[in-house]
Design brief:
- It is built from eleven helices and two strands.
- It has about 250 residues and is mostly helical.
- It has a two-stranded antiparallel sheet with strand order 1-2.
- A hairpin with a 3-residue loop joins β1 and β2.
- The radius of gyration is 22 Å and the shape is globular.
- About 35% of the residues are buried.
- Residues about 5-15 and about 240-245 have low confidence and may be disordered.
Length: about 250
């Protein structure tokens, strides 16, 4: 008599799954950076991205260090949640090295956008030039762009209310960010960094040949081949042999 199914074996998973190596390292680095800010608040000035400090005092480490500092616990939590949600699958697909490089380049692209915008002849630029920007949001928006391109039809819940395809979610997010960066006076700095990271991520994936794109394409092709291979069990045949398909 067949045994009834064991419901104790049924497992449920929330989100993309366990942490991957690069995502885990980035989470730890950001948490450590935030705790260091609580102990030494001056770290925000030293490590945050201030265009004046980069261009005049040559604090050239700031375009890198700013992405590991945050303005508050809520800022940190939401950025790290997004890193986990969008980063794990991308790292599984691309590999740790390509993913880490992509993340850092998006963060640097966001920093370059902020510095360039601070030199524009507009009213907000003078404030941007002297104000420290912190947060991983620029790099996170780059991951968002990559997720929308790679998993174009994957549903994402907009504001946790209704699902939209990932590619549409990215387009809406980019349009909102662009609009806010133009019209908002108080949050212009953050919005420009977000937009810079989003555009950098898109450009990295859309560039012509070689470099990071070639490595990502290789990883993607390898992943698809391995996935297809698992569907079939091919056994070597011979005389009297044949194909066995599981």
């Amino acid at each position: 008599m067949p045994r009834p199914p064991s419901y104790a074996r049924v497992s449920y998973q929330f989100g993309p799954g366990p942490l991957t190596p690069a995502v885990k390292a980035l989470l730890i680095a950001n948490v450590v950076g935030f705790l260091a800010q609580l102990v030494a608040p001056a770290l925000t000035t030293w490590g945050g991205l201030t265009p004046a400090a980069v261009l005049e005092s040559f604090w050239i480490w700031q375009p890198f260090t700013y992405m590991f500092l945050h303005a508050g616990l809520t800022h940190l939590v939401f950025n790290m949640l997004a890193l986990w949600m969008f980063g794990v699958e991308l790292e599984q697909l691309w590999g740790t090295r390509a993913f880490a490089r992509f993340y850092l380049l998006c963060g640097l692209g966001a920093a370059a956008t902020t510095i360039a915008a601070s030199l524009l002849p507009f009213g907000f630029a003078s404030s941007l030039y002297l104000t420290a920007t912190v947060g991983a949001s620029g790099a996170i928006y780059g991951l968002l762009a990559a997720f929308g391109i790679t998993f174009a039809n994957r549903p994402i819940y907009m504001y946790f209310l209704f699902p939209v395809p990932a590619r549409i979610f990215v387009l809406i997010t980019g349009a909102i960010t662009l609009f806010l960066s133009i019209t908002s006076s108080g949050g212009t700095m953050a919005h420009l960094a977000h937009l810079g990271g989003l555009v950098t991520g898109w450009l990295l994936l859309m560039q012509g040949r070689g470099g990071l794109t070639a490595e990502i394409k290789y990883r993607y092709t390898k992943w698809r081949l391995q996935r297809a291979r698992r569907k079939f069990g091919v056994h070597q045949g011979g005389r009297g042999g044949g194909w066995n398909v599981h």
